[in-house]
Amino acid sequence: MQQKTRAFLKWAGGKYSLVEDIARRLKVASQDADTLVEPFVGAGSVFLNTNFKKYYLNDINADLINLYNELKRQPDEFVSDARKLFVELNNHPDAYYSYRLQFNASVDIYERAILFLYMNRHGYNGLCRYNLKGIFNVPFGKYKRPYFPEKELYAFACKAQKATFTCQSYADAFRKLPENAVVYCDPPYVPLSKTASFTSYAKGGFDLDDQANLANLAEQTAFLHRTPVLISNHDTVWTRKIYSQANLDVIQVKRTISPKGNGRNKVNELMAMYDKRECYGTR
């Protein structure tokens, strides 16, 4: 693989460290496929580090997809306007919470896109979290000098010309799959413990029923419609059960979100490949 490209967003569960493993599996499964579909695109690390002719990139988070579309449409203007917020005066709790209020009150797509990037880089740990009313509520991050990702923004905008971005449910994304595609799913992960659940990424969350439904959709898509599907998730008794019809590989990854740096231990992660040929990997 060529030198990796970083996403411009900080992202809980981002796949930058795993793109080689994921891209290799997608290449084996895709054969003549010219399109990558991601129902849970997140920060886009897999998109940025694969080479398909076309991309259909979806996420249930409307602010994320709005940001991608605005950046794709007018990269120079977007980068220029966003840069203005990355000044020392704005790296302060009062400024952050004022901009957060402005974001939550705004109905202007472009304004929300600029502020979403600002809060991503100035908020705590790059989290994206909303309350039940859909209000963004991530606290201030207390960074010495937040990084303005100009190079990464332009790299994303350039490649985004090959992509179509949509904001819909994962189920709708599966219902509208194009021909000659391969699918990669990076859903919100099954919690490793009862206290580790993180379901506030978007209003409504993503529960165990959704996890099982996604596995069923992947199975139907691969075995009935002949479109390979790769899903990544934590390695648990539950995920092994719902992915029982897939070929499973285990890789070790570091936690990306932890309040203490020394608490970022390696955990096992499942790569579940649904492929009509059923010849990839080992269980």
UniProtKB/TrEMBL annotation:
Residues that, per the record, bind S-adenosyl-L-methionine: 11, 15, 59, 186
SUPFAM superfamilies: S-adenosyl-L-methionine-dependent methyltransferases (SSF53335)
EC number: 2.1.1.72
Record keywords, A-Z: Methyltransferase, S-adenosyl-L-methionine, Transferase
One Pfam family from the record: MethyltransfD12
Superkingdom, natural source: Bacteria
A GO BP entry: methylation
Alphabetical list of InterPro entries matching this protein: Ade_MeTrfase_dom_2, DNA_methylase_N6_adenine_CS, M_m6A_EcoRV, MeTrfase_D12, SAM-dependent_MTases_sf
Catalysed reaction, written as an equation: a 2'-deoxyadenosine in DNA + S-adenosyl-L-methionine = an N(6)-methyl-2'-deoxyadenosine in DNA + S-adenosyl-L-homocysteine + H(+)
GO molecular function per UniProt: S-adenosyl-L-methionine binding; sequence-specific DNA binding; site-specific DNA-methyltransferase (adenine-specific) activity
Enzyme class, first EC level, given as a word: transferase
Family: Belongs to the N(4)/N(6)-methyltransferase family.
Name this protein carries in UniProt: Site-specific DNA-methyltransferase (adenine-specific)
Source organism: Pseudoalteromonas holothuriae
Gene that encodes it: dam
